[in-house]
Amino acid sequence: MPLSEAVRVLSQTPQLLRRPIIFDDHRLLCGFNQDEIRMFIPREQRVLKMQAMSEHQMA
Question: What is residue 59's predicted lDDT score, i.e. its pLDDT?
Answer without folding.
Answer: 67
